[in-house]
Amino acid sequence: MLRMRGPSTAQSAPWPGDGEVFVHVALLDGACLPVAQARMESISGADVPFNESVELCRTAPPLVALRMKADGKKPRRVLVTVYRSVHGRGLLVTFRLPAGQWLAIRPELIRVAQSVVVRCDPLPRAPGERPLLLKDRVGYSAGPSVTSVQLAAIQRLVQGIAGPLTRLHGAAWTSVSDPLAVYVNANPVQHVAFIGAVQELLDVQSLPNRATILTVPDRGLGSPMWRDLGEAIARVILHLDYECVADPWMAYGEQAVAGMAAQTGRPFPYAPRSVLAELPPIQWTLQELTKQQKLHDAVPNAHCLYYVLLFHHGPSEYRKAYAAFRAALRDAPGPGLTTAKHLFVLDQAKMRSAAAKLVKRLRPVPGVKW
Questions:
Q1: Distance from the Cα of residue 180 to its chain's centroid
Q2: What is the mean pLDDT of residues 106-131?
Q3: Is 183 in contact with 126 (CB distance < 8 Å)?
Q4: Most confident range, picked from 30-44, 166-180, 292-306
Q5: For the domain with range 126-241, which CATH number is right: 3.30.360.10, 3.40.30.160, 3.30.590.10, 1.10.287.950?
Q6: Is the distance from CB of 257 to CB of 185 less than 8 angstroms?
Q7: Are 230 and 263 a contacting pair, CB within 8 Å?
Q8: Mean pLDDT value of segment 237-251
Q9: Nearest to 48 by CA among 68, 32, 30, 25
Q10: Which end of the chain, N or C, is less packed with Cβ atoms under 10 Å?
Q11: How many whole angstroms separate alpha carbon 48 and alpha carbon 184?
């Protein structure tokens, strides 16, 4: 029996060689496991062309076995995924094994997966009693030393950032019974009660799986805190709105666009001078961008910004394609598939040129130094 106790953790391993079976275990606090499980069960071979076949083991809980093609030095292999959920905490167990071993050890892996037990206390959203004040379907809570004036300023900021995101992506993220929670603490040290000890305490922290944002009081227009709050709100809203399957390039791009608009207090084409000074030239098509491994790095992240700006403000063919992409994304079995169907079919070189032309329209906010 495989058991896990204690706080959120993850263990990972490389792809197995001959005769090896690796297990990846992750405790996912507050993740949408029923949604993830349903999406996994809906996958077919046509959905994931890099797989030779997909097998759904209708056990309790169900398992999904993806038989994956050989890729470079990686042999043909099978990826078996199972989810368990208890008290708002979830366990994801993934088995990785050579394809030739699957049939022989399939009964044993199913037995092991069925024996998984999650023994954790229910996941608290916030430490102690921090009641939420509901305003426009967002819950707010002021920590010690946070004044009503400071709380009201954060409420205005959040609504200004969330409004454009809701108009574009819809209001699926809103919930009266379980709202997005914004906890305002006097300083980042007070975030520790929510997230534990971390190497770096930031003014703004987002916890998408818990629909929670931690922030300090308003630092003023043009401050990095405004940018970080914009990015955090976009991160959580996309996570909730698309139920964990927003494509990574889309998520990074939407976050960057929201952060830029929040920091300047103005929509496109305005951008902070610091951003304009560091923008790299566009070099990848969207299809090439999706193959980059570290989208959070400066150059790939800038490209995510470029393409999302194009889909927001570019010619109608790109705005319409992005609208169709967003609509289809809600029913997609996983990230990546909808991008290929709706956006890779467009002329990639032409799209890159259109993005480069649009980026040239960015300008600093007049009359300010930042």
A1: 15
A2: 72
A3: yes
A4: 292-306
A5: 3.40.30.160
A6: no
A7: yes
A8: 85
A9: 68
A10: N
A11: 42
Per the CB < 8 A criterion, the answer to whether 276 and 367 are in contact is no
Average pLDDT of the residues in 108-133: 72
Q: Does domain 3-116 have CATH number 1.10.8?
A: no
Q: What is the distance between the alpha carbons of residues 111 and 93, in angstroms, rounded to a whole number?
A: 13
Q: Cis (ω within 30 of 0) for the bond into 61?
A: yes
Report the alpha-carbon distance of residue 168 to residue 162 in Å, rounded.
10
pLDDT per residue as tens digits for the range 17-41: 556 788 887 776 655 566 666 666 7
CB burial class (10 A; 0-12, 13-18, 19+) of residue 130? Answer: middle
Q: Token match 């709706």: residue?
A: 342
Categorise residue 141: left if φ over 0, alpha if ψ from -120 to 50, beta otherwise: beta
Polymer length of the chain: 370
Find how far residue 10's CA is from the centre of its chain.
17
Strand order of the β-sheet with 63-68 is 10-11, 22-29, 89-98, 77-86, 63-68, 51-57
Mean pLDDT of 323-328: 93
86 to each of 5, 109, 122, how far by Cα in Å?
A: 12, 21, 8
Residues 117, 91: Cα–Cα separation, whole Å:
9
The alpha carbon of 127 is separated from its chain's Cα centroid by a whole number of angstroms, namely: 24
Q: Is this prediction's pTM over 0.90?
A: no
